[in-house]
Amino acid sequence: MRVKICGFTDPGQARAAARLGVHALGFVCVPGTPRYVDAARLREIAAALPPFTFKVGVFVNASIKTLRAAIEAGGLQAVQLHGEESPESCARLARTLPGILRIKALRVRGAADLTKIAPYTDAVEAVLLDAWHPTQAGGTGQTLDWQALQGFRPALPWLLSGGLRPANLAKALEILAPDAVDLSSGVENGVPGQKDLSKITQILRIASSPFAIERDCGE
Ligand SMILES: O=C(O)c1ccccc1NCC(=O)[C@H](O)[C@H](O)COP(=O)(O)O
């Protein structure tokens, strides 16, 4: 099970997470949100990371100019799109941003929302299912209804996100079979953007062997 951790703001914490074996690191490039990193900070974090670290920028309805600036500053390999980006605009990014993987994030309130995924099948490389929230585009700590997603097998790779933490990851992986998991607030110490390396270590352990781990990761 691949693990993506999102919302790093500190170069030292990002480097430590990469060294622990986190597969992909995410950086929130959305001004006005609590984990926002601007281009200068993104550059600083990227410079602190070991070679070959997979870096993902997180955006909401960003312009091509904004995407390009962040890709350049952070040496990003992928963009994760949390706004109302249409399948057509995602498909166009293959030409405007060649070589950059596209992940479309969809906020899911119920099984009916899953019908939104099919139009993205040929437009992005992966979808990320996040929890629905009336005002926040991500990082909410809210979980999806995992039972309602049981048997979910989209035509493209998918990441499970939304409210995952050491105490519930094994349970989520008992019910669902995503290609990767994505976490943010569940591996923080209560302050947005401040990651807790011991929680990240627990997550990596659970993700590598979810059914062998006793659920002793109480909150
Ligand atoms: O994390 C944010 O602050 C954020 C803000 C705006 C758009 C997206 C954002 N996060 C995207 C992520 O990939 C998070 O990891 C995902 O929403 C899950 O967050 P959490 O429920 O806290 O694990």
From TrEMBL:
Pathway info: Amino-acid biosynthesis; L-tryptophan biosynthesis; L-tryptophan from chorismate: step 3/5
Record GO terms (molecular function): phosphoribosylanthranilate isomerase activity
Domain of life: Bacteria
Catalytic EC class: isomerase
Enzyme Commission code: 5.3.1.24
Annotated family: Belongs to the TrpF family.
Entry protein name: N-(5'-phosphoribosyl)anthranilate isomerase
Source organism (scientific name): Gloeobacter morelensis MG652769
Taxonomic lineage of the native organism: Bacteria, Bacillati, Cyanobacteriota, Cyanophyceae, Gloeobacterales
